Amino acid sequence: MGRHLKKVCGVIMYDDRILVVVLICSLLFCTMCIVSASALVGNVDGSSPGDEIWMDGTPPVSEIFKELNETYPFTENLIGANSLKKEGYSIGDEETFDCSDMIEEKLYRINATCEAVGDYCYIFVEENQILPEANAIADVFDDVIYPEDTKIFGNPRDVDGISRIFILFLDFTSESDIGESESSCCGYFHPKIGDTTDIIHINVDNPEDEIKSTIAHEFQHLIHYRHDPNETRWINEGCAMYASFACLDVPQYSHVYEYMRLPDAPLVAADVRFLYTRENMAHYGASYLWTLYLSENFGDLSNRSGHEGFIKDLVENKEHGIPGIDATLALHGYEERFDDIFKQWVVANYLESEGKDPPLGYASLNLPHQPPARAGRADLRELDVSTFSFPEKKMHSWSAAYYEIKTDDPERITCTNDRGFWNTSFVNEHGNVVIVISPLDDHGNVTLTVSEEHLFVPVDFDEE
């Protein structure tokens, strides 16, 4: 069926032409790593470059293709509704299902057998495939994933008139020649298939832990699509990664480390950036950290009475992106708005490495002693200057850059930039001044200048 993919630097190649496919988040436990791992990641979580990557492959919704002035590729290739499912499947029953071929840009159909029936799910497995843990997966979905995801994000809409969610396991492997690593797509929720059937598709070859994490992730996509199908990708993916953490305590360290390595990746990323940029893993890490920060300080994990449904209200809000966040903050009676919290968040992302608790860090993460990568560093003592300008840096909207200044007296350090971008400073645990700069909703090239104010020392003159 042409279901084999080859990934080169985050882009799928097929027959000498580039076809864009969503490479969403790898849903891993801390034994996994990403292809572009650097020394920042190396061995911190027991992983190393060359470990397998497990990626989510949820196809993009049509709005992404509208931005590209392209036709949504699945629209003209639908096999048919195939929604004539029934209630009351039993183990051993057979059924046909539509699946997505993201390379050939069409849907195809497979036969599958029911191998487990839960209170909230049917587990179907593609013919000639084996899923030994089907009953255990159904139990986890019934006891943990379904109640937690619906509590946090809301109930799924019943589009097929069947009380259970279909979880379809099939073989869709990916191949990669990047270094010594191999990658495999974990699963997806397909919007067009989801218009007729309440279903998520999972790679049968995943290890059991990744299977469970992926189900929590993809089930969030199904729920989110029912409440707000046009939500921006950075919010939707942040919620999906948060789902794996909330349901199964998956910390998403690989994505967090990648964002720490590339903190200039914008949080408010256009949907197409998740497709085209090599920094897509950093985008997922940023979205996850942002959602977790919102939850810990303003919502479900904040221990503030009346705000337990913050994330659910965000999902249900029909505003998208920043307006949706602001509307949810207003609904919960907060005076803070997105830009206020963003300024706190970029500082917290640094101070978390020093073990700070909210709002200066995270209660739910235990990151290694490694702050976000620095955009520049200067030791004014060695330079023997009172003013120093860093090289010009290109910055995207809603990104951050961190600079470290060594000095004998941090209180004498001031900073300016030639664009008037927002910046703030603080002293880290080593006594160095850390300056964080962000364009907020602006963007462009910026030069940061730091100065060390020299104190006036009066001179005594002897009277003659």
Plain-language structure description:
With 464 residues, the protein is an alpha/beta fold. The chain has 2 domains: 5-264, no CATH class; 376-452. The chain has helices spanning 62-67, 134-153, 191-194, 208-227, 233-248, 253-261, 273-276, 280-298, 310-316, 322-331, 338-351, 380-383; strands at 5-8, 11-14, 17-19, 53-56, 94-101, 106-117, 121-126, 165-170, 174-176, 183-188, 199-203, 376-379, 387-389, 393-395, 401-406, 413-417, 422-427, 433-438, 444-446, 448-452. It has a 7-stranded mixed beta sheet. A hairpin with a 4-residue loop joins strand 5 (94-101) and strand 6. Helix 6 packs across helix 8 (280-298). It is elongated.
In short:
The protein contains twelve helices and 20 strands.
Shape descriptor: elongated
Secondary structure: helix percent: 25-40%
Radius of gyration: 24 Å
Largest sheet: 7 strands, mixed
In order across it, which strands form the biggest sheet?
Answer: 4-10-11-8-7-6-5
Mean pLDDT: 80
- The class by helix and strand makeup works out as alpha/beta
Low-confidence stretches: 1-54, 61-65, 70-81, 174-183, 455-459
Number of distinct helices = 12
Total beta strand runs: 20
Estimate what percentage of residues fall within beta strands. 15-25%
When the domains are counted, the total is 2
